[in-house]
UniProtKB/TrEMBL annotation:
DUF1330 domain sequence ranges: 3-96
Lineage top rank: taxon: Bacteria
TM helices/strands, residue ranges: none
Pfam families named among the record's database cross-references: DUF1330
UniProt protein name: DUF1330 domain-containing protein
């Protein structure tokens, strides 16, 4: 079965303190949903092509369906409420390949 992934790119963060509050709620929700964080905010980046070094978070799940269910979970929906307006985020759930 193909894995599922959450991919989050953060082009702009103007309220890091409130983003930390979101992370404190989102982390346990992701773990409860079976997610494993594969990349961290603030990790090393070598940018090519457009040269953009935005923050990227990559989270792996055992399946695409598990990734969708984790996003739709009550715990993660509560975390989303804490995501501040000052954070611009591009979020996707994608299917992996076998």
């Amino acid at each position: 079965m193909a894995k599922g992934y959450w991919v989050s790119v953060y082009p702009a963060i103007s309220d890091l303190e409130r983003l930390t509050a979101y992370n404190e709620l989102a982390g346990p929700a992701v773990q409860a949903g079976g997610g494993r964080v594969l990349s961290l905010l603030g990790g090393r980046v070598v940018a090519h092509e457009a040269g953009i070094t935005q923050r990227v978070v990559l989270i792996e799940f055992d399946s695409f369906e598990q990734a969708v269910a984790a996003y739709e979970s009550e715990a993660y929906q509560k975390a989303l409420v804490a995501l501040p307006d000052g954070v611009e985020r591009d979020f996707r759930i994608i299917d992996g390949i076998d």
